[in-house]
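Handout, section 4.2: multi-component inputs.
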Amino acid sequence: AQSVTQLGSHVSVSEGALVLLRCNYSSSVPPYLFWYVQYPNQGLQLLLKYTSAATLVKGINGFEAEFKKSETSFHLTKPSAHMSDAAEYFCAAPSQGGSEKLVFGKGTKLTVNP
Amino acid sequence: DAGITQSPRHKVTETGTPVTLRCHQTENHRYMYWYRQDPGHGLRLIHYSYGVKDTDKGEVSDGYSVSRSKTEDFLLTLESATSSQTSVYFCAISGSGGHYEQYFGPGTRLTVT
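Output:
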């Protein structure tokens, strides 16, 4: 069964520094991969989606993610953190077996220090 | 934003009482999901629906039931609420076509005392 692992439940960066949030999937190459963002007291919002059309995917708010099959990874990056990026980030992949289900990682909480 | 609303947004209830949470969508999407979110556990699927009257269990379905009598509404019922069901509950929707992209509602914070 597919599983998604996010390394680091908490990541802290300074404003203006590089943001790197890690995500690894476990099973056969998924057709899609997702990053979601959750701001405090809100629902999850789609940040970006990998569809195999391109290994480097650009999302909203300056985030991007690169799919690396050899590393079974889909890490999320942003060159320069902004205070407004403070949120929790979730990586997700389709669950094997269909039914349009997603498997989510446990999330990484990003703190941005001034 | 996808047209998804959840009601109530906050609820406090006592152990042993039944509770029903409602998810309403205006997108006419086929798939609907109920998740719970707890610290350290991320999002866990409770139940999902792949059409009117078609539902199936997720990974944490014990103590929960669902119903979907119309495309737009998906109800989650806690048959007899327990303190372990204190959580934030999210509804999500997804269209057909195998794209898996889900859109989430704003959540319901449930406290069972």
